[in-house]
């Protein structure tokens, strides 16, 4: 397969919560003419995504782990899909890939709003509306109709939206994974949230771009299981990737120090994801 032009659009890269106008984790991968793949969907991501298109234009969504700063805007995205099903008279289900155990978490979260108790009348609004009405009549949550939910386990490899997605267990939460996306010979790595671990070196070997977290940035880093910017640079150097995009730093004011630390460990180009817009691989 010949190499394709793969683009990355940074929708959000803030760590933990949206800060200084930056959304939390959310990255859009695509190629010309293809439906893009959304990776993570934290607070603020849906507004950025929907400013440039429609929810039903997505090819799929892949979630790295079930922490709120990586999933909460799935709610907004689902509401957008439900509305588009009615207004556009369509019924395009979006594949949603959750890590092992993620469906149960998502079900508990959605149950808070009683979606399965919604009432859709017999008005004719096209196939999407009819499907929503049938789901509600069956006492099921319509969020699991607009999304086609599937789970994957660490180590699984699957195909979606034209990408081959490889996974490996992260050192963060029990369900968390690190991800690698391959399309047409272009490879993009995404650590999501994880401590540094040697197993990631071969997993990301030779990637065209590595998006690596450096949440333990600044003089007062928060708690949790994360990497420092220096460790992100170390991983990029050991994996011999071409470029490093540093994401999920603790605070925007840490940017210069985080870049300095990562560049001291990695000889290649380093950028801050929160300052990036669109990158061609």
What does this protein look like?
The protein has 281 residues and is α/β, with parallel strands linked by helices. It has one domain (7-280): Metallo-beta-lactamase, Chain A. Helices cover 27% and strands 24% of the residues. Strands 6-5-4-3-2-1-14 form a 7-stranded mixed sheet. Helix 3 (74-87) crosses helix 5 (127-137) and helix 8 packs parallel to helix 9 (255-265).
Q: CATH-wise, what's the superfamily?
A: Ribonuclease Z/Hydroxyacylglutathione hydrolase-like
Average pLDDT:
95
Radius of gyration: 19 Å
Q: How is the main sheet built? A: 7 strands, mixed
SSE series: EEEHEHHEHHHEEEEEHEHEHEE
Cα distance spanning the termini? 16 Å
Structural class estimated from helices and strands? alpha/beta
Give the CATH level 1 class.
Alpha Beta
Number of helices: 9
Oligomer: single chain
State the helical fraction. 25-40%
**Count of individual domains:** 1
CATH fold-level topology: Metallo-beta-lactamase, Chain A
Q: How many strand segments? A: 14
In terms of DSSP E residues, the strand content is 15-25%
| Lateral arrangement of strands in the main beta sheet | 6-5-4-3-2-1-14
Which residues sit in consecutive blocks of at least 5 with pLDDT less than 50? Answer: none
CATH architecture annotation name = 4-Layer Sandwich
Overall outline: elongated
